[in-house]
UniProtKB/TrEMBL annotation:
The gene is rpmG. It comes from the Bacteria. The lineage of its organism: Bacteria, Bacillati, Bacillota, Bacilli, Lactobacillales. Keywords: Ribonucleoprotein, Ribosomal protein. The keyword Ribonucleoprotein applies. One of its GO terms (cellular component) is ribosome. It comes from Secundilactobacillus folii. This is Large ribosomal subunit protein bL33.
Amino acid sequence: MAQKKVALACSVCGSRNYTIAASPNRTVRLEVNKYCKYCGKYTLHRETR
């Protein structure tokens, strides 16, 4: 069975650059500093559902 995926969206431009596996144990949305190729810098990316 395939895993469910959620996207990580850039908080600056809103583009969804990364996907991760959804975890039922995670109660708060994941926030990670990742590189955004559209902004050209490291920005905060938040989990979308």
